[in-house]
Write a structure and sequence with these properties.
- By secondary structure, the chain is of the alpha/beta class.
- The protein has a 6-stranded parallel sheet with strand order 2-1-3-4-5-6, with helices on both faces.
- Helix 2 (52-62) crosses helix 3 (77-88), helix 5 packs antiparallel against helix 6 (130-141) and helix 6 packs across helix 7.
- It has helices spanning 19-26, 52-62, 77-88, 109-112, 117-126, 130-141, 148-160, 165-177, 203-212, 226-229, 231-242, and strands spanning 2-6, 31-35, 70-75, 94-100, 190-194, 215-219.
- The protein is 45% helix and 14% strand.
- It starts with a strand and ends with a helix.
- It is built from 11 helices and 6 strands.
């Protein structure tokens, strides 16, 4: 089985760290393909669309070579792209859907991004001192004190493939405008959320669970970037769900 991995706002495939390798070791019969959203990673010189539809269509073209059906595991805004994709995909294109700490227009805006996070995110995106900015982004998205080597890694990513302020704004606009359709795109999907998420309230995932009777698993204390805070927990939940 092939999997597409999608990251969130202004983040690229290198921000997964060793998580794709952990997945590969845990599921050797599967193949995992981290894919960058437009305006990030290998596409950092491109202009990101400012709608979820536009972002989704760019990503679909990027993965046209991957055999279908494939599955999608997506974090944060990547989850919105994946959900929009699932609702517009031809029958049989997407086999499994795993959404981590994502949100949608089904939830009120103060849950989609918690009020205390808005000013911090805007200040961080406007901050010029790169090392301090990446450290503070980690401190906001993770509930574990980030090791210095991880901060340096994120700093090098941004130095090598900087996300422009314009692309960050366009991604934020696409996320804020996103409203999924009412139809359930799949009989089941795995929703993973963190009770300790200080950016997106876990009730956003609970809303999707209640609306479409999907499977929700809650982590007791991890932050928004669940794959950094507890990657082994994510892999265990995924293994249990795939064995259903």
């Amino acid at each position: 089985m092939d999997w597409i991995l999608l990251r969130g706002l202004t983040r690229e495939q290198a921000h997964w760290g060793d998580f794709p390798e952990r997945l590969q070791a845990s599921f050797p019969e599967h193949r995992f393909h981290p894919v960058d959203l437009p305006g990030t990673g290998v596409h950092f010189r491109e202009t990101s669309p400012d709608t979820m539809t536009g972002i989704r269509e760019v990503v679909r073209r990027q993965v046209a070579h991957i055999p279908k059906p494939f599955s999608i595991l997506a974090l944060s805004m990547g989850g919105m792209v994946a959900l929009d994709w699932a609702q517009h995909a031809p029958d049989g294109e997407i086999q499994n859907l795993v959404l981590i700490n994502t949100s949608s227009g089904f939830s009120p805006f103060w849950q989609r991004m918690r009020p205390g996070a808005w000013p911090r995110v805007l200040r961080l995106l406007a901050r010029r001192e790169l090392f301090e900015r990446e450290r503070d982004i980690l401190r906001l998205t993770s509930n574990r004190e980030p090791p210095l080597e991880l901060v340096k890694h994120w700093y090098r990513i941004q130095r090598q493939r900087p996300v422009s302020a314009g692309n960050a704004l366009r991604q934020m606009t696409a996320a804020a405008r996103y409203r999924p359709g009412r139809q359930r795109p799949m009989p089941d999907a795995l929703l993973l959320a963190s009770r300790g998420d200080r950016i997106v309230h876990w009730q956003c995932s609970a809303q999707l669970e209640q609306r479409w009777l999907w499977t929700l698993k809650l982590h007791p204390d991890a932050g928004h970037d669940l794959v950094i805070d507890d990657p082994d927990w994510v892999i265990r939940r995924l293994r249990d769900w795939l064995a259903r």
